[in-house]
Amino acid sequence: MSDEPRLARIEVKLDKLTSVISDIVRVEERISAGSDRVSRLEHRMDIYEEDFGDLKDIVQQYAATAKTGEKLFWLGITAVGGAIAWLINLVSSGTQP
User: What is the four-CA torsion angle of 6, 11, 14, 20, rounded to 10 degrees?
Assistant: First the structure.
């Protein structure tokens, strides 16, 4: 009869052990799911970094073109202003061009 309490304690310990093992399995599943999410986010971040690098190159090309265009614009404005000043000077001095 002394075996019955001992078996009961063993059963209780086995139940606790089963509960702990199932808790460990759930925690491992959460860790695995979190790791999968992190891997997916890292992959997406790599794609975004590539796209960002391409976009950066395109913007640099457009910036150089815009800078050249701006210089040409001001050169044209200066040439037109100089031509107007030259014509005004000719008209005011009374000579024909």
Answer: -120
Looking up tokens 């009869």 gives: 1
Tokens 């139940």 correspond to: 15
Provide the token pair at 26. 């759930």
DSSP designation for 96: -
Distance in angstroms (rounded) separating the CA atoms of residues 15 and 1: 22
Type of residue numbered 19: S
What is the rounded CA–CA span in Å between residue 39 and residue 20?
A: 28
Q: Whole-model pTM?
A: 0.51
Question: What pLDDT is recorded for position 62?
Answer: 93
Taking the C-alpha atoms of residue 38 and residue 55, their distance in angstroms, rounded to an integer, is 25
Cα-Cα end-to-end distance for the chain: 133
How far apart, in whole angstroms, are the C-alpha atoms of residue 53 and residue 15?
A: 57
Residue 1: band (very low, low, confident or very high) from pLDDT cuts 50, 70, 90 = low
